Amino acid sequence: MRVWEVKDLGLDNLTLTEKDIKSIADDEILVEMKAATLNYRDLIMIDGGYGPIGGQPPFVPISDGAGIVKEVGKSIKNFKISDVVIPPFFKGWDSGYMKDDTVLSSLGGKEDGVMQEFMIFKENNLVHAPKNWSCIEAATLPCAALTAWRTIVTEGKINKDSVVLVQGLGGVSIFAIQIAKLFNAKVIATTSSEERMEKAKEIGADFVINYNKETEWWKKVQEITNKKGADIIVEVGGSKTLEQSIKCSKTGAVIGIIGVLSGGIAELPIGRVIYKASRLIGISCGNKMELTNMIQKFNTSNTKPVIDTIFGFSDLPKALIYMSKGQHLGKIAIDFEKKL
Q1: Which of 3, 146, 212, 228 could bridge across to 286 with cysteines, CB 3.0–4.6 Å?
Q2: Has residue 180 got a pLDDT over 60?
Q3: CA-wise closest residue to 14 among 49, 54, 53, 62
């Protein structure tokens, strides 16, 4: 089978190799991987940016994928041949909160990732994909979608009366809009251009703010909410957006700290955080139970992920370079069966 490996740190050291397919034990499942999708985290892992908690070469990169069950061991009960399945982002984080060693179990680092044509899993390390979703569509869920779900559902306790603020139109933010609308919540999105404003509305945002025109966009959020503020904030910006997020949040709001696109060190208005009783929560993806619950919710709707571009298996380096430019809108996918 074909396998991509990080032989040494850095994108230039990605190597396409051949390996044998191993036999499975009675409690294992053989999955033929059919698709993967990319996250910025994958680039950081390949470059060694996470230090000791990341993978040390050689390792198989990329965390998010989906495939089809090809063989099941004698003791397997919940999966059968031809099922479309997804491996969760964290191997072994079944429910509840993260433990000290959970971060070490993410795929695409210390645990080999999905850029290999066949993978072997224990039964508790797979979930069923949404009904009538392709492998490419299903491969979008383990990281970005689940991060959005944990922020607005698990921590935010979203309901139909919630106001959700979403920053930008990255992978997490797009899924946050879609998930919020599954709960009939109101969504306010910020983005950078008129074109992207229209796209945000197509995805489901009720109100969209151009942050290049409304530089103090927190005031616009307060205006839209009649000065009540947002209940849940998907905070992906970091140093240059956190203060505005706090200013436009409702008393007791959940602010999910997800990204640091504008910088990782922020000046925190502590007094405002205290009197607003703000709940700033670091979000690191989610667990298998949350992934299953999210998939069940998607099964009740016609929602499908936004796909920007699809590359072939052999074009992984090109796909990663394309992602690094930051010009995409939606997920970048790898179709293992796509022909050149």
Answers
A1: 146
A2: yes
A3: 62
